[in-house]
Amino acid sequence: MSTSTSASTSTSTSTSTSTSISTSISTPQPPPERPLPPQQSHALKSALLALIKHPDRISIRLRSIATDASHVAALPSTYKLPLIPNERCGTWYIPSSLLIPGTGPAYFKSTDGHTGEWSFSLRRLNLGVLETVAAYEGAIVVDSSKGKSVSDALSKTIPIWVGVWNRVLFPEREDAHALRFPEGVVSLSDAAQIEERMPGFVEELKALNLPLPSLDLPLIPIHITPLTPLPPSPPSHPDFLPLYLYTASTTLPPAPLTPETYIQGAADDAEAWCIGLTPWLFWSHKDTLLSTPEPDLPGLIAELVASAPPPEEGITRLTPWLSLGPLSALPDLNTAPAALSVPLLPNPKVAQRQLRRSYSCIARFLTPHLLRIPYVPLSATNPSSTGTPIPPSSDAEQEIPQILILSPSPSDLGSATALLATCLHERLVGGEVQTKERIRMRLAHLVAVWEGVRPARASVVGVGEYLMRRDGEVG
């Protein structure tokens, strides 16, 4: 007889040394874009601020997105590769019909490419991108930028990511270790400082002891924009797997804000203007939305949002004994041998704080069940140390307690709770002292199972503080 434990969270209301481009690249590159003169730059910023102050002008944003997306639509047939949107902005520029199931999205943050803050994120490994590149012998990542010719995610974050993975997977291919940035975007000084950090990034990735993905060839990042001439046939890269980095928006001189104004990076900060509209709804009703007068758009969008089917969210198995899902998958708790409900307010920041304050309560509830679960050390060669999508196959395994975490935000709140559970189990049964490095490793293994694991930094820090404080009390 299997044992099931449900820990559910719920709301309390309805809730680079030098910059180089490989000679093997045959794709024509556009000339470097010159910085705008100070006066024009100031005017552009003023125009963007005006738009921010008037988020109700949704029609301008939607028309600009549709204009940029018309160029994106030509890429798959030209390069014979799948499109991968970079969340969250890039998802707006790819019609739903052009997305291939199982090929995305990517999650590269511009903040990991900000000057002086260059980083290889251990929380955003983007293993799914590697799987897509391996399956299709390349891919095209689509993103957009507001106020820059190339977003920091495309110009620096991804080239760093490519460089780290190439050095880990192909240590003998020194020709694949050079950092490749878009021409004229990253200074020689910045490139040199990034290169200094690369050995550290490589060692951090190795220390995670993850199962390594399989690629036949190293990656090569190739930056393209709407100004890049489309080749008559897919370029050949015999020694590399191409990862095209496409900036969907174009830098234009500033213009007065009119209904026909083009806004660069119009999809940026969608939460501030979309009033519930999603990329999927936009592409499903594009013609209607683009033909609707501005005053009528909020009402139309409200109707579309209200009538849209709920997103299909299933339960994801993170380990042989731990699963994570949305509150909509809530079973009859009266039939569960044990259950715990943690009420949370709807505001995400408040809910994160409430969850952190509940770690002690959740740990007390989980402890007797975790003590009955055998410990399997983290291993790059033993996938069962993290998770498997295969259901229990033996009677003995079925006797292991099954813990189900349900949350209104599985990626954030639910993932933080899952991290707490796996780290606590490792401490209680495996005898592993929980350090920042150990918690980072455990989180990376969860991400390797499901890239939707994206707990807030404060929640991860809270898990570490609770476990290390608990170790201190035990000691």
Automatic annotation (TrEMBL):
Gene Ontology CC, one term: cytoplasm
Locate the region Disordered. 1-40
Q: Does the keyword Transferase apply?
A: yes
One GO MF annotation is: tRNA adenosine(64)-2'-O-ribosylphosphate transferase activity
Q: Which UniProt keywords apply?
A: Transferase
Q: Which InterPro entries match?
A: Rit1 (IPR007306), Rit1_N (IPR033449)
How is this protein named in the record?
A: Initiator tRNA phosphoribosyl transferase
- Point to the regions of Low complexity compositional bias: 1-27
- Would the keyword Ribosomal protein be found if you checked this record's keyword annotation? no
